[in-house]
Each structure stands twice: as C-alpha cells, then as structure tokens.
C-alpha cells in the first residue's frame, strides 16, 4: 500500500487535505474525477467519490 498523498503529489496539479479521523481526503484538482479515483485506487485503499464541497 502507498499513501494517497504520495500518489496525488506524483500526479501533479492537485491540492488536498487529509482528514485522518474521518478517513477522507478533500481534493481540489484540474483532473477529472475518474483520473483521481483511478490514481487513488492504486494505493490499495477503499476509494469513493462523495461529491463536490
């Protein structure tokens, strides 16, 4: 497993906040939702899209 922050930094064009207690990541990015989800799935963690802020 790798960390979500690590793979997001490698993707570039992403700003994010990790909320560890609630196990959520808030992302602001120029990339599509599909690109972000596919990138985060590479961590081996459960990933889902909860919608816009």
TrEMBL record:
MF GO annotations: copper chaperone activity; metal ion binding
GO cellular component terms attached to this protein's record: cytosol
Keyword entries, A-Z: Chaperone, Copper, Copper transport, Ion transport, Metal-binding, Transport
InterPro entries for the chain: Copper_transport_ATOX1-like (IPR051881), HMA_dom_sf (IPR036163)
UniProt source species: Podarcis muralis
A Gene Ontology biological process term: copper ion transport
Protein name: HMA domain-containing protein
């Amino acid at each position: 497993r790798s960390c979500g922050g690590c793979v997001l930094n490698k993707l570039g064009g992403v700003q994010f906040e990790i909320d560890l207690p609630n196990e959520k990541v808030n992302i602001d990015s120029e990339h599509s939702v599909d690109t972000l989800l596919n990138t985060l799935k590479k961590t081996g963690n459960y990933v889902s899209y909860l919608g816009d802020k």
